[in-house]
Design a protein that fits this description.
With about 450 residues, this protein is an alpha+beta fold. It has a single domain, classed as Outer membrane efflux proteins (OEP). The chain contains twelve helices and four strands; from the N terminus they run ααααββαααααββααα. The protein has a four-stranded antiparallel beta sheet, with no helix packed on it. β3 and β4 form a beta hairpin. α4 packs antiparallel against α5, α7 packs across α12 and α10 runs antiparallel to α11. The chain is elongated and about 140 Å long. The N and C termini lie far apart (about 85 Å).
């Protein structure tokens, strides 16, 4: 009897010594706000590039931590799925009040309840949890790409906003020179007052466009700060080089040629949908396996007034009222939903490829047209300057050539922005930076 008590005490003690202590982790909104406001850009000698901001966002962007936490949750669920049901112990003290004198009256009872899972239920739970881990891993990868793409998108937006701001400032200065020259011509009686008024309206519109461009730069800088995970004030004095270099036609063509295959087979969200379907498949198999009852084994010992009595009980649920038809039907429907989501995703990707690829090709063509337009206006300005230096041209001719060149450059910035947007749409189809990879391949082949 003492040996049995000692054994029970040891088993219970071992069970409690393996417990995990609770560690509180209070959250303070004031501290979070203070820490966020204290974030600054690390000191570096060279200008900040888009890639530099992407690397910095990996440290500050909370979305990455959230995706990593979700992946850790899925891994913890895998541990839960692989765990076995703990045995239960019952201690029942008892006394026989009718026992004869000088006879032990105690009849204590100890019994254990052990669960034996049948039909490979544990293996199916593990398979389902593993698929959820795969899904969370692909979600983490997809989140990484999306956050990187957000930094790249906002960085490019800021670059184009700054380029437009710079050109509009030049246009305002040029329009002011034109207005001054027109006023001199009015004083000389060479033009009518209406021409001065028309030129003044053109100058006012240019100043309004510049004011809009200033606001666009501020907004784009704030969006970049949000994507990086730092306060907007941290970027106010930062030296940046966010230049966007469109790929060559050959590189863009290589990216387009492989976009459909990559989009339909290698995207993280496609892998997530496949893992989700596999998880629902395992869940259905698990619900089918639950039709077969688990077996409960209950060994026990009783010390009956000095007599040792051993017993062994077996128990299981009787499937009289249902055979788990409801959960099986639900699991079947969820598997069908997962299959439908996968088919819808692939159809959506195919439609996006059919839409994005022609749009990218058209954007590339219009970008080349804008480049040719700038070259033409540069030649016109050069000719006007030479004529003025030779004393054959008028000052107004040179100023108007400069204004036309600025207008052409604004068109080129707009076309380059649209081309960059289409390149982003192309990369969104494949999720990894496909254009960058194609460019690297082209450079490798050219060596």
């Amino acid at each position: 009897m003492l040996t049995l008590r000692f054994t029970l005490i040891v088993l219970i003690g071992l069970g409690f010594t393996s417990c995990v202590d609770y560690t509180p982790a209070p959250v303070s909104m004031e501290q979070i706000d203070h820490d966020f406001a204290a974030r600054k850009l690390p000191v570096q000698k060279r200008a900040w590039t888009v890639q530099d901001f992407i690397l910095l966002s990996k440290k500050y962007q909370a979305g990455r931590e959230q995706a990593a936490a979700q992946y850790a949750t899925a891994q913890a669920a895998l541990i839960t799925a692989g765990g076995s049901v703990n045995p239960a112990v019952s201690l029942v003290p008892g006394i026989n009040t009718s026992a004869a004198s000088n006879t032990p009256s105690g009849i204590p009872l100890v019994s254990f309840d052990l669960l034996w899972e049948t039909a490979h239920k544990k293996d199916l739970r593990l398979l389902k949890a593993q698929q959820q881990v795969f899904k969370a891993g692909f979600a983490l990868q997809d989140t990484e790409w999306q956050l990187d793409a957000a930094v790249r998108h906002t960085g490019w937006n800021l670059y184009f906003a700054q380029e437009r701001q710079k050109l509009l400032a030049q246009e305002v200065a040029a329009q002011e020179k034109v207005l001054d020259l027109v006023k001199h011509q009015l004083e000389a009686g060479l033009i009518a007052p209406t021409e001065v008024q028309s030129q003044d309206l053109v100058g006012r519109k240019a100043r309004l466009d510049l004011a809009d461009a200033d606001a666009a730069v501020l907004e784009a800088r704030a969006q970049l700060a949000e994507a990086v995970g730092v306060p907007a004030q941290a970027l106010e004095r930062a030296k940046m080089n966010l230049t966007v270099n469109p790929p060559s036609p050959r590189t863009a063509s290589q990216a387009v040629n492989r976009v459909r295959q990559v989009a339909l087979t290698h995207r993280p969200d496609v892998a997530m949908a496949l893992a989700d379907y596999a998880s629902e498949e395992a869940n259905l198999a698990l619900e089918v396996a639950k039709q077969y009852p688990d077996i409960k084994v209950s060994p026990g010992y009783q010390w009956d007034q000095g007599n040792n009595k051993w017993q062994l009980g077996l128990g299981f649920d009787l499937p009289l009222f249902h055979q788990n038809q409801g959960p099986i039907a639900e699991a079947t429907a969820r598997r069908r939903e997962a299959q439908s989501r996968l088919e819808m995703l692939q159809a959506k990707i195919s439609a996006e490829v059919d839409r994005v690829v022609p749009a990218l090709q058209q954007a590339w063509k219009t970008y080349q047209v804008a480049q040719d337009l700038v070259k033409t206006q540069e030649q016109k300005k050069t000719t006007a300057v030479r004529r003025a230096q030779a004393g054959q041209g008028e000052p107004m001719e040179t100023l108007l050539a400069e204004v036309d060149l600025i207008s052409a450059q604004l068109v080129l910035v707009d076309r380059a922005n649209k081309l960059a947007q289409q390149l982003e749409a192309l990369e969104a189809l494949t999720r990894p930076p496909l254009v960058t990879a194609a460019r690297a391949t082209a450079e490798k082949n050219s060596k």
